[in-house]
Amino acid sequence: MSTPELKERAAQHAVAAELKSGMCVGLGSGSTAACAVNALGKALQDGTLQAIIGVPTSEATARQAVALGIPLRELHEVEGLDVTIDGADEVDPALNLIKGLGGALTREKMVAQATTGRYVVVADESKVVTGLGQHAPLPVEVLPFGWRFQAQRLARFGAVPRLRMADGAPFLTDNGNHILDCTFPDGIDDPQLLEWLLIALAGIVEHGLFLDIATVAYIATPDGVQRLGDGPGLE
Ligand code: 5RP
Description:
By secondary structure, the protein is an alpha/beta fold.
């Protein structure tokens, strides 16, 4: 089974298991979250779900949701979210995550923190790691102003930072910022400590460590979808 098929499977499973009519739903970003948005659009079109409000985590997701006819609100227009479904770049055994290879980490984390109900991760099995930083770089969103100084500071924390580029120019997030993709040659020893160090630095807007946020993860394998977090099992 191909990776896109696994992503599709995880997303469809999560939408069927987690969404109920009338919910306010955070819509994640990236290719797996896009499968979930598609599944939601289909469920609204065939009447399986009704009266859902979506809160998108990126401009790309907003465009996709509008095309599917999913009613949207901005984050500041809602009281809180019942559930958010989003992808991840790494998922550790405690459901701590690295996110942001799609560049939407700041809005994704704001929506995650506004989610009073369940934060649902959808991923294929390649995203599961025993410790964060083993495979994926940690994306750090920085203000363009003085970004080289942030890169130097990050290097002091053991990171090898690289400015993300797109079409020959620094990548710009939906918020107009740059991203430093930070590789940790020995993995991330202490994610909590690193989080503290990162939030103390002026100019760092947000980072892709999502610690103690996820409620459940639906991980697609060729043998089925594994639910991690609240009652593990193969479904
Ligand atoms: C975007 C993200 C994505 O959720 C993450 O990169 C996973 O993407 P994909 O589902 O395409 O593998 O954090 O900012």
